[in-house]
Amino acid sequence: MSTATAPRPVSTRPLVAERRRPRPRAAVLPTVALVLGALYCLVPVVWVLVASTKSSSELFSTFTFLPGTGLLDNLGDLFAYGDGQYAQWALNSLLFAGVGAAACTLVSTMAGYALAKYEFPGRQVAFYAILGGVLLPGITLAIPQYLLMSKIGLAGTYWSVLLPCLISPFGIFLARVYAGSAVPTETIEAARIDGANDARVFVSVALPMMIPGMVTVFLLQFVGIWNNFLLPFIMLSDERIYPLTVGLYTLLSKGSGTPSLYTLAIIGSAVAIIPLVVMMLVLQRYWRLDLISGGLKG
Amino acid sequence: MSVATETPARRPARRRWGAPVLFLLPAAVLFVAFLAIPICYAVWLSFRGMRVTGGGPFGVRQETWVGLDNYVAAFADPELLAGFGRLAIYGVIAVPLTLGLALTFALLLDLPRVRGARFSRTAIFIPYAVPGVVATLLWGFLYLPSTSPGNWILERVGLPGIDALHGPMLFPAIANIAIWGGVGFNMIILYTSLRGIPADVYEAARLDGASEWDIAFRIKIPLVGPALVLTGLFALIGTLQVYGEPTTLRPMTSEISQTWVPLMLIYRDAFTRDDLSLAAASSVALALGTLVVSLVLLRVTQKRSFGES
C-alpha cells in the first residue's frame, strides 16, 4: 500500500515494524458503506453456490445458507438432463458470444477507424446513423428482426441470433473515440510516405495501437451477447440451439410443475455464472472502461 | 464539441474516397440489414392488417392497408397503458436508486484512506457478469418465503414472514433485481471518470479549506456530469425494455400477468395471438417513445454528451 521507496530497516519482527509504521487513520464510515455494498452484491452469488449443494428435498427444508449434501448428484443430473442438453447450451452460448463478439469487434474497429481518420462525403450522415442506433439498441428491434428473419427463412437457425449481434452502434462509437485518441495522424501520414497503402496502414499501424480499445469492445459485446435473453428467446424454437439463458429459463418455467427441475435450474445457474465471473476478474485490468466515460468528452 | 481538447494534429487525414468506404462497408451492410430494414419493415407492417374483403358469406380475409387502425387499437388497449403505468412505477424506483448508489459507491471509492476498496469494487462489479435470467432466479429464491433468509430470521424472532412477490413489495422486488445488476457497471464508469480528474484540482480546493464533502459536491459531481448523463440514458433505455425479469418471475408469482410490461404484451400479440401488425405498431410506438425520451433527456441536460468532433 505504502508508496515509500526508502529501504526498510531489516527487522527480526517484521509484523511489529509493520504495525508501528505511521499509517493514516482509516476512513471508517466510507469503508463500512462500501463493504455493505459488496455484501449486497455477493449475497445472491453466495446463495446460488450454497444452494447448488442441496438435494431437492433439502432445498426447501433446510436453512437457506446451510450447505447440503447433493452437490455431486446435482452436477451429474445437470449434465445428464435431456441427453447432455446443458453442455450443448453452454457451447451455443460460447459460440454466439465468442464468434459474435470477435466479428463485431473487427467490424466496429474498421468502421470506427474510418470515421475517425478519414474525411469523406457522408461521414456526418454515417455518424448520426450510429448515434440513432446507440439511442435505439437491439431489444426493441427483436420482433421486427424476427419477422424479417422468418421471411428469409433464417428464423430458428444459429444465424438468426449470430447475425444481429455483429452490428453494434455503441461498439462503433467507442472504436471511433478510441481511434481518434490512440492513433496519431502523423504516424499514419509517415507510413503513407513510406509507401504503405491504406489496408497496410490499417493492419500494421492502426490495428496494434487500437488493441486496448478492441479488448474493451470485445468484452462488452461478449458479456452482452452471453447475457442476452430476448433475441434468442424470440428467434429460436429448437432446444438444441438455445443458449444458456433461454435454456435455464425453460428449466425454471417447467420447474413450477416438477420441483426437481428447480435444483437443476439452480446448479445450472451456478455453473453458468462461474466462468463469466472468473473471466471478468482475470481480464479486469485489460478493460479500458475509461473509454466509455472518456468518450463523452469527445 | 471537443474543440477545446482536440489538437490540430488530430484532424482527419486528407480527403480520400475508396478506403474509408471499404472500411465502413461491413458495418454499413449489417446496419442496413439488421437495423434499418427491420425498422422500415415494422413501420410498413404497422399500417397493414387482416380485413375481410368482399361481402356476405364469401368474404375473404386478406392483408390490406389499414392506415392508423393498429395504432388506434394499440393505444385503446387498456393493458398497454397499464403496462406503461407499471413500467413507470418500476422505473421511478430502479433508475434513481441505480444511479444514486453507483455515484455514492464511486465517490466513496475515490476518497482517500478507504480500506478494502479493491475488494468492494470487484464485488460490486460482479453482478454485471450475471445474466438477467440467472439474477432473477437467484433473487426469486431469496424472495420465496420457503427459502428466504430474511423470513428464516423473522420466524426465529416470532414475526410473520414477508412475501416479496405478492402485494405491495412486488415492484421494489423486481426493481431490486435491476438495481443489483446495474449498480456495479455504472459505478465503474463513474469511478473511471472520477479518476480522470487531475489531482491538483483537489489540492487547490483543500488548500482553500474545502472538506471532502465540499469537494464531492462542488467539484466531483459536476465534473462527472457527462458520465452521469450517459449512465442515466442507458438506465432509461433499459427500463423501457424490461422483459426478461418479469417473464422469468412469472412461474413464482400469480401477480405478473402475461402482459405485465409493454414488451410482454408485444410478445403475446405477435406470437400467441399471431397479430403481427398490432405487435409492430406497439413496437414502433415503444421505439419512438424511447427515442423521444432519450432526446429530451439529452436536450434537458444540455451536455451534448455525444458530440461530434
TrEMBL record, chain A:
Q: Which InterPro entries match?
A: MetI-like, MetI-like_sf
Q: What keyword terms does UniProt attach to this protein? A: Cell membrane, Membrane, Sugar transport, Transmembrane, Transmembrane helix, Transport
Membrane-crossing residue ranges in chain numbering: 27-50, 89-113, 125-146, 158-179, 200-226, 261-283
* Matches recorded under SUPFAM superfamilies: MetI-like
Query: Where does the signal peptide begin and end?
Result: none
User: Which branch of life, at top level?
Assistant: Bacteria
| Membrane-related topology note | Multi-pass membrane protein
Question: What are the subcellular locations of this protein?
Answer: Cell membrane
Gene Ontology cellular component terms for the protein in this record = plasma membrane
Pfam families, A to Z: BPD_transp_1
Q: Which GO terms describe its biological process?
A: transmembrane transport
Per UniProt, residues of the ABC transmembrane type-1 domain are 90-283
Q: Does the keyword Secreted apply?
A: no
Q: Does the keyword Cytoplasm apply?
A: no
Family classification? Belongs to the binding-protein-dependent transport system permease family.
In its UniProt entry, what is this protein called?
A: Multiple sugar transport system permease protein
Q: Which organism is it from?
A: Promicromonospora sukumoe
UniProtKB/TrEMBL annotation, chain B:
Q: How does it sit in the membrane?
A: Multi-pass membrane protein
A Gene Ontology biological process term: transmembrane transport
Q: Which InterPro entries match?
A: ABC_transporter_permease, MetI-like, MetI-like_sf
Which key words are in the record?
Answer: Cell membrane, Membrane, Sugar transport, Transmembrane, Transmembrane helix, Transport
Q: Where in the cell is it found?
A: Cell membrane
Q: Where are the transmembrane segments?
A: 21-44, 87-111, 123-144, 169-191, 223-243, 276-298
The cellular component terms of Gene Ontology attached to this UniProt record, alphabetical and capped at eight, are: plasma membrane
Pfam families (UniProt xref): BPD_transp_1 (PF00528)
The record's similarity note reads: Belongs to the binding-protein-dependent transport system permease family.
Name the UniProt record assigns to this protein = Multiple sugar transport system permease protein
